[in-house]
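Retro notes
What went well: the complex prediction finally ran end to end.
Inputs used:
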Amino acid sequence: MAEEFVLEGEQRVFMTGNEVVAWAAVAAKADIMYGYPITPQNEIMHYWTRLAPKYNKRFLQTEDEISAGFTTLGGILAGSKAFTGTSGPGNVLMQESANMAEMMRIPMVCVIQQRGGPSTATVIYAQQETQLTCFGGNGEGHRVVYSTATHQDLFDYTIKAFNTAWTYRFPVFILGDGYQAKMREPLTMYDPESKGIKMVSAVPTLGQNVPGKQFKYLRNCLNTEEELHEVLLKHIADYENMAPQVIEYDARGCDDADIVIVSHGMVSRAALSAYHHFRAKGVKVGYFRPITVRPFPTEQLRTIADKTKKLLVAESAQGQLLKMVQAGIYGSTTEIETLLRPGLGITSEEIIDVVEQIKL
Amino acid sequence: MQEVRSQGEFLPAMPTCWNEATKPHKFCPGCGHGLILKTIGELIDELEIRDRVVFGCDVGCSLLAWDFFACDSLQTHHGRVTPTMVGFKRANPDAICIAYMGDGGGYAIGSQHLFNASVRNDRITVVLCNNTNYGMTGGQMAPTTLPGQKTETTPYGRDVHVTGYPTKGPEMVATVTPEGAYVARGSMHNLRQLKSFIRKAIETQISGSGFGFVEALSSCPTNWRTNAKKTWEFVEKDMTAYFDVGEIKAPQAKEGV
């Protein structure tokens, strides 16, 4: 008999981010993972396949990420909590199935560990998949993207990803990166239900043709522009209703700040250190980190932008977060300074240097 | 009213798993899809599997089958019905997963999925309609276009020195599947035989023996620009001259059975 997953109370652990994701998926009662090898995501599969038989869970290694995405959708339609994980060029291929999930409202969960692209570029780190993960494919970007910064985030938000997906039936991405995937860090693991987090159950969409039942017909083929428009309007309304419920961000010291550092994911850790550095010296620096980069905390950032003199956008890409910030504060006269390091990590010292050089 | 009803008495019996609200079907006059789907419908009835069937179709003309049956159905992206059904079956092994596609979906854009599902011996049934061209997009060359055949992208006839020879799908699937799989090529011009092949392919899934694959030679008079007689001749003579009809691989009968 397979054992039921139990994490007694809380456990302090020290492990890599990929291992954290595998444990979080077990904690979230995920049933099956479909995946294709790609660095730096591989160890999610490695740990999942080691844990799976112990917890009566399954795994399928597919022929590519297109297949990983579509098999994941098949598993979900059958009523399983299914997920996948990928990176870089695999993320590109994953977008086709993500688009189907958006249009058919299939609660897909996908963990992205960003690398520098395009293939093979680096297998290490970048934030170059931010726009792709938020808006990839031919659709309207109807997905939720949690940008994680720490291993605790990876655990918390992987669990949350399943609940968000199954509650709102939009695909949900965890946007990590190679640094988070590969490095070890302490965190606290827990059983979500014992902390009062109720896990949303998976239900089958197809495959129960009992007599008298209204059969389900899922399709992406629509006959007219008007028909597509009507379907999209419904999704847009659902997405907009969902947005205030799922938007998350971390804002510190933004009320009296002369300059607010805006960053997401791994870079926000350097930004947070810089923020503490300046505040310890009495310099009025603020910190703003969108946790959901899609939907983006637009109103919250706009309110902050109206109160501060400048924003400093720091990211390991040439302006992918910047575009969201610009769109988010449209109409504000607050200046935006940038620290753009495509494909490079950013240290707190670099951010401190840049802030000190900016004339306020 | 009465006249209509009395006319109905002369109509052949249709499968009970048909979605009557969507009949007559949406395929062109003379298209083979309707016949192949009718065969699948009869088998769903006869094998009494309707409560467990999930019917998946691809993109291309096969997508017009999205509401063909009175059972849960799914229409995916081009070439992706195979992995979607594979994922479904892995999560729910009790389901009977039928993936329906055209030659473009199976042999071109989704060929990696067909190949690997074959290698893995996934317990699903794939029925692939081979009409030697891309019908829905207006009759371009398909992997199965015959040598010399004119299409919109081979207006002077398919030159095999430039584009290669037509794909022999069942032969490929038979080569890469392990024992236990079922592989055959049937044709709409011999429906009774085609039905027996699809029956075995579904039974192969039901028994858990392995992957079931049937290619069905089919017609496309709209894009072939052929009348009824020429259409039938093309399927029966020209296509079968290149594509051998018959069983290519069948699970070994157990001793004493």
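What we learned: The mean pLDDT of chain B is 94.
What to try next: split runs per interface for comparison.
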